[in-house]
Amino acid sequence: MSHTINIMLAGPRGKMGAEALKLIERTDHFHLVACLDRKYDGMKVQDIEGLPALDAPIYTNPNHAFDQVNADVLIDLTNPEAGYEHTRLALLHQVRPVVGTSGFTDDQLNTIKQLSTDYETGVVIAPNFAMGAVLMMRFSQMAAKYFSDVEIIEKHHDQKLDAPSGTAVKTAQLIQESRPSQSQGHPNETETIDGARGADYDGFKIHSVRLPGYIAEQEVTFGQAGQTLKITHSSTDRYSFMSGVHFAVEQVMQQDDYVYGLENLME
Questions:
Q1: Is 90 helix (H, G, I), strand (E, B) or coil?
Q2: Which residues on neighbouring strands pair with residue 7, listed in sequence order?
Q3: Which residue stretches belong to region Disordered (predicted)?
C-alpha cells in the first residue's frame, strides 16, 4: 500500500486547480490538507460551491498555511507572481513543490534551484504536465539532430498571460541542445508588419496564437529540401494534464533537488 502524501493545493478555483482537486479526491493515498486561495480564508473546501466535498481549510495567507499545516507536497497551478512566492515559501518549509505555472524569470528559477539545494528539498517545475506533450518535446529534440531548420507554433486559450508558452520555450531549449546555432530564411528578409515572423530563438522562430476554443496545442515543423516533418500535440481537455501531475507528485517525494521538465523524470 502506498504511503499517504499530504498535499497543499494553490489555486483550487482555477480550471487546472479544479481538476487537481478531483485527482486528489480519487487517489487513495493523496490527502488534501489545505488550499491557498485569494478568497474564503478560514472556510473549508467543501463549503465552496462547485468544489469537491473535501474537509481541508482554505488560507489566503501562505505564510500562515505553511506555519500551521503539515504538508509533504505543494501543488501550484496559479500564476507566475503567486506561484513563485508559494514555491519559495514551500522550500523554506521543506515542502516539496510541484509547479505547473509557466512564466518564471531566469532569476526566479535560479533562486528556486538554490533554495532546493540549500534545503535539500525536491521541486518539480513542469511547463507541461501532459505526457504526450513531454514526448512531443523529446521527439523534437531527436529530430533537430537531422533537421536543422525548424519553427514552433503554439496555440493556447485567450486567457493565458505569458507568450510564448513555457512548453514552447522548453521545446526550443531542447532543440537548441541538438541543433547547431544558425539563422534561417533569406538573409535579406524583412517584416512589412512588425512581429510578422514571430519571436527569434537561436535563429529560429516561435509563434504564439491566443484564441478562445483552444486549451493547449503545439506544432513543431522541421523543413529540409524536398520534405517537411511535423510533430504535433493537442490537449483537448484539462484532464490530460492530471496524469503528469500524479506522476510528478509521486516522483518529487523521491527527489532532493531541482527538476525542470517532466521529461527528466521519465528517463
A1: helix
A2: 32, 73
A3: 175-199
The grid coordinates listed for 218 are 503545439
Q: At the top level of CATH, which class does the domain 5-125+239-265 belong to?
A: alpha beta
Residue type, 202: D
HEC-encoded secondary structure of 169-198 = HHHHHHHHHHCCCCCCCCCCCCCCCCCCCC
Q: What is the pLDDT of residue 103?
A: 80
Please give the pLDDT value at position 267.
65
Give dist(CA 83, CA 88) in Å, integer. Answer: 9
| Radius of gyration for the chain, computed over Cα atoms and rounded to the nearest angstrom | 20
Q: Determine the Cα angle at 202 with ends 199 and 203, to 5°.
A: 70
Instruction: Phi first, then psi: give them for residue 244, nearest 5 degrees.
Output: -70, -40
The pLDDT assigned to 1 comes to: 46
For the chain, the structural domain boundaries read: 5-125+239-265, 131-236
Q: Which CATH class is domain 131-236?
A: alpha beta
Please give, one letter per residue, the 3-state secondary structure of 116-176.
HHHCCCCEEECCCCCHHHHHHHHHHHHHCCCCCEEEEEEEECCCCCCCCCHHHHHHHHHHH
Confirm if 245 and 11 have CB atoms less than 8 A apart: no
- pLDDT for res 240: 86
Query: Per-block average pLDDT, block size 10, for the chain (267 residues)?
Result: 89 92 95 96 91 92 96 95 96 97 89 97 92 93 97 95 91 95 91 95 97 96 97 91 94 95 84
Which residues are known to be catalytic? 156, 160
